[in-house]
Design a protein that fits this description.
The chain is of the alpha+beta class and 413 residues long. It folds into 3 domains: 5-41 and 202-263 and 375-412, FAD/NAD(P)-binding domain, CATH 3.50.50; 43-77 and 267-362, Polyamine Oxidase, Chain A, domain 2, CATH 3.90.660; 113-192. The chain is 32% helix and 23% strand. The chain is built from 14 helices and 21 strands. Strands 8-7-16-17-18-15-19 form a 7-stranded mixed β-sheet. Strands 10-2-1-14-21-20 form a 6-stranded mixed β-sheet, covered by helices on one side. Helix 1 (12-23) runs parallel beside helix 14 (395-412) and helix 5 (115-128) crosses helix 9. It is globular, with a radius of gyration of 22 Å.
C-alpha cells in the first residue's frame, strides 16, 4: 500500500470514516493507540459481567446508526420507554404515554410536576419532531434550563424529572447545555428505542471494524507527530500518506494539533458497578434521582434489559455519578449508603465490581453552541479532523463527522 489515507483513532468517528472510504476502494490505514477499537465505547468482561465503560445506550433513531449498523446482528434489547423517579416518598413511574397508552392515567397522576407539566412534555415532544434534523441545530439558542422555563415547566417538574434525565444525558446537572441539544435528544428518544446490544456496547464498534480489512487496522499504534504527507509513530516508524485524518477525542487531538485545544472543560462522568443477588427494580427502566440528594444521578439494571450482562443468578447494577470529587475508596460507600436509603437492607449484599472515571466523556456543549453546526473538517493542507466535538456529543454526532470527512476526501480526489 503506497501513500494511503491515515486515520488516527479507532473510535466511532474513525471507524465510520474508514467504512466509507473502504466502500469506494480508497486505501487507508487506521491507527489506534489502545488494544481495541471503540474509543469511549468499550466493554470489559469482569467475572462474567459485561461492564460498559460508563453507562451508555444506543438510540435506534440515530440516522447514522440506522444507515450503517445491522441491528439484528447486534441483537438489540430495548429499555421500557419511560423512567422510574425517586422522590422523598418513593419510586414513581413516568411511562411514555404515546408508546404505553395503558399507563397514561398512572403517568398523568404521578406526583411528578403538575398535570399541565405532562401536557407540556407532549408539546415539547411535538416541537422536537418538527422540521429536518439539521434544522434542530439552527433553532434560537439558549440554555436547556432557560428553554424549559420559557416553555412553562414548573420547578418541581424540572428538578424531579427533567434535570436528572437531561442532566444524565448531557452529563450536566446544571442544564447549561444548549437547548438545541435538548431538542435533538427528545427527538431521538421519541422516534426510536433506547437499546443495548446483547454483547455490550463494544459490539457496535466491533461490527464496524469487522467490515474492514484486518491489515488496515493497527492496534497499539500511538502517533507522535503528523504532517500532511506523513505520520510518525512513537516507535519511530514513518508512514507516508495522501491525507491525515485525526479522529481521536478532543484532548488527544489537541496534543497533535494544538489549535484543537478545548476552551471549555469537558464533561466528566463516573460509573459504579455492583453485583447483586436480586435486581433492586424489576422494570427495564432508568431510575432517576428526583430528590437532588446524594451522589447518584441515575441508576439502572442492565441485566434486566440484556440477560448477558450478568451471569446466571446475579444482577448487574449501574450507578452514574456526575458531581463528586470523592476518591474511589470514598465514593463507593457513599453510593451504597444512598442506595440503601432507596432500596433497603438488600443493598448490604451488593458487591462492588468496578468504578470507571471518565475525564472526557462528552464535549462541553454549554450555550452558545453549534455555530456553525458542523465545525471545520479541514484544518491544514491535507489534515482533516472528525469526532463528536466537531458536530454534537452523541454516537450519531461522532459517526456523522466521520462520514462527512470521508466525503470531503472523496470530493478532493
Amino acid at each position: 500500500m503506497s501513500n494511503p489515507t491515515v486515520i488516527i483513532g479507532g473510535g466511532l468517528a474513525g471507524l465510520t470514516c474508514a467504512t466509507q472510504l473502504h466502500a469506494v476502494g480508497v486505501e487507508f490505514i487506521l491507527l489506534e493507540s489502545s488494544d481495541g477499537v471503540g474509543g469511549r465505547v468499550r466493554t470489559d468482561n469482569v467475572d462474567g459481567f459485561l461492564l460498559d465503560r460508563g453507562f451508555q445506550v444506543l438510540l435506534t433513531a440515530y440516522p447514522e446508526a440506522k444507515r450503517l449498523f445491522d441491528y439484528d446482528a447486534l441483537k438489540l434489547q430495548a429499555f421500557e420507554p419511560g423512567s422510574l423517579i425517586r422522590t422523598d416518598n418513593g419510586l414513581h413511574r413516568m411511562s411514555d404515554p404515546w408508546r404505553r397508552p395503558q399507563h397514561v392515567l398512572q403517568t398523568a397522576f404521578a406526583p411528578i410536576g403538575s398535570f399541565a407539566d405532562k401536557v407540556r412534555i407532549g408539546r415539547l415532544r411535538w416541537s422536537a419532531g418538527r422540521g429536518t434534523l439539521d434544522s434542530v441545530f439552527e433553532r434560537p439558542d439558549c440554555t436547556t434550563e432557560g428553554e424549559l422555563r420559557r416553555r412553562g415547566f414548573t420547578q418541581s417538574m424540572v428538578d424531579n424529572f427533567l434535570r436528572p434525565f437531561l442532566g444524565g444525558v448531557f452529563l450536566d446537572q446544571d442544564l447549561q447545555t444548549s437547548c438545541r441539544m435538548m431538542y435533538f435528544v427528545f427527538r431521538m428518544f421519541s422516534q426510536g428505542d433506547t437499546a443495548l446490544p446483547a454483547d455490550g456496547m463494544e459490539a457496535i464498534p466491533r461490527q464496524l471494524a469487522a467490515g474492514l480489512p484486518e491489515d488496515c487496522v493497527r492496534l497499539n499504534s500511538t502517533v507522535s507527530a503528523i504532517d500532511p504527507d506523513r505520520v510518525t509513530l512513537q516507535s519511530g516508524e514513518v508512514i507516508p500518506c495522501n491525507h491525515v485524518i485525526v479522529a481521536t477525542e478532543q484532548p488527544a487531538a489537541a496534543r497533535l494539533l494544538p489549535e484543537l485545544a478545548a476552551s471549555r472543560t469537558p464533561r466528566k462522568v463516573r460509573c459504579v458497578y455492583f453485583s447483586a443477588r436480586e435486581p433492586p427494580v424489576a422494570d427495564r427502566m432508568l431510575v432517576l434521582n428526583g430528590t437532588g440528594l446524594g451522589v447518584v444521578n441515575n441508576l439502572c439494571v442492565p441485566s434486566q434489559v440484556v440477560s448477558n450482562y450478568a451471569p446466571d443468578g446475579r444482577s448487574l447494577v449501574s450507578a452514574t455519578v456526575l458531581k463528586s470529587e470523592l476518591d474511589d475508596d470514598s465514593l463507593v460507600p457513599n453510593v451504597t449508603t444512598q442506595m440503601r436509603e432507596w432500596f433497603g437492607a438488600s443493598v448490604d449484599e451488593w458487591k462492588h465490581l468496578r468504578t470507571y472515571t471518565i475525564p472526557y466523556a462528552l464535549p462541553n456543549q454549554t450555550t452558545p453552541a453549534f455555530d456553525p453546526p458542523i465545525q471545520l473538517l479541514k484544518l491544514r493542507d491535507d489534515i482533516l479532523v472528525c469526532g463528536d466535538y466537531r458536530t454534537n456529543g452523541s454516537i450519531n454526532g461522532a459517526m456523522q463527522s466521520g462520514r462527512l470527512v470521508a466525503e470531503e476526501i472523496l470530493k478532493s480526489g
